[in-house]
Structure formats: C-alpha cells, structure tokens
Amino acid sequence: MMTLRQLRYFTTLATVRHFGRAAEAVGISQPALSMQLRDMETDLGGALVERTAGGVELTSLGSEVARRAAEILAAVGDLEAVAHSRRGILSGPVTLGVIPSVAPYLLPRLLPHLADAHPQLSLHVRETITTTLVAELSAGELDAIIVSLPLDNERLAEQPAFRDTFLLAAPRASPHAKRKPAIAELIGAEELLLLEDGHCLRDQALSVCQTVDPRRLRRLGATSLATIVQLVAAGQGVTLLPQMAVATGAFSDRRLKIVPFAEPSPFRTIGLAWRKRSPRERDFLALAAAVEACAPT
Of 254, 252, 194, 191, whose CA–CA distance to 221 is shortest? Predict the structure, then answer.
C-alpha cells in the first residue's frame, strides 16, 4: 500500500521533473527515490514517469496521480493544522516560503519581530522561486508563502501586505543615470540585465520595459540580484531594483545611480498566500500584518 512518504516523494519529482534534484530536495539518495517510485508504479499497475535526456516527463497516469497526491497531502496538512488553530495566534510550527527577491530584505526584520511578538511560534523558512513555492503550498509542504501578488490560483487565498516600487539602477557614467525620472522606453535589450527565467522579478521588469524584446536579452543565468547589481556597477548594463532592496542599503555601491521612474511609479504587490481550506487563516492574516509592519521603505 502506498504511504504518505511515497506521495511526498512523487509530488516533488512531479514538480522538479528531475530525479537528482528531487532526491536532494527530499533528503534521500537517487537510487532510493527510484525504488520508491517503482513500488508506487507496481501498486498502481502503470508507469508514472518517462525518463528523458533532460529529466522526466509525467505519463497520463502520472499527471492524474500527481494531482490527486497533492490534494491528499494538502488535506493531511490541513488536518494537522486543525490542532494548531486551537492554540493562540501564531503559535506552533509554521513552514513559510519566500521568493528570493524578497527574502534577503524582509527576513532580517521579520524574523526578530515574530520572535518577540510570538515566542510560541516555531517558524521554518524556505526560499525558492514562485512556481515551486505554489506547487509545494498546494501539496501541503508549506503552510503559507510570501510572494508577488496576484497569483490567480483559485485554490489559494491572498492577503496583500505592501507595495514595492521599482527603481532603475545604472552605472554613474550611463546616460540613464543623468535622467530623472528614468524612461523605460529608452532602455535597450542589449543593456538590460535580469534574473534567469523562472524568477517573477524578471517578468515584472519586462512588463515595465515593454519595448524590450526578451529574445534579445543577454543570457546570464543569474539567480541573485547581488550578481546583477555587481555587473551593473561594473558598467555592464542596467537593471530594475525593488525599493525594498534599495531601502536596506544592500546596493549602496558608489558606482551605481538609483533613478526613480515617473509617477505613477511601476510597482509590485508583496503579500501572503495560503490554501483556502486551511483552518489557520487567523494565523496567516496576522503574519501578513507582520510582513506589512516589517516592510523596508
């Protein structure tokens, strides 16, 4: 008979589509993960995945099992949350996901605030991109996530916390540094430096710079804003930074010029999302309020 552990292993594999990365994510060896998958396939009487050169693809059975497994795991998580909901606000364990373009600037303020205000809270944090966070939240592996809203997911509830304005970061010698306000239409694809595909900040920056053809962007494979900003400071191009990152002083390099855009300034909305059927809505609303109170401005 299948176990909840096997379902968690399989939903992770279905999310990342790669045996090595899935095994690392769940903390077991790749052969052990393969063995668990084979046991599931034997129990279900059919193949769940097909191996490809780049990883794995789900079969039609695998897609159906992945969908139902996510629902089962989420229901189990909600069942466990029932007990926690009977305690005080923000007490007991909470597993929180945060996107990389928020975590380094918010968490140093948020975590001490929560420790002081809610000493009974046991908070576990995971940082990764939005698509992975949503998948893990839906599967019950996370209780809530701090992301850019809206997510447009009918299974998730959302609570906005604050607006985060976008600013242009340019080398001091760049023509962009001499303009105020910054003009998005004058930013060329060849000079715009962005995070790799999968990061929501990349898509948001492209929505601001609508005249930029994404196909002409340089392929950097950068996964952190710190890398991008160092390249900008070295005169390699320009980028868009969220106000919360600038407000923390993380990018105070003298070689940089931070220039605001004209009003109404482009922005993203940062907030909390959780499963609609979770019994811990009071906790998550309180957590969203804490995020708002700790937002760097």
Answer: 194
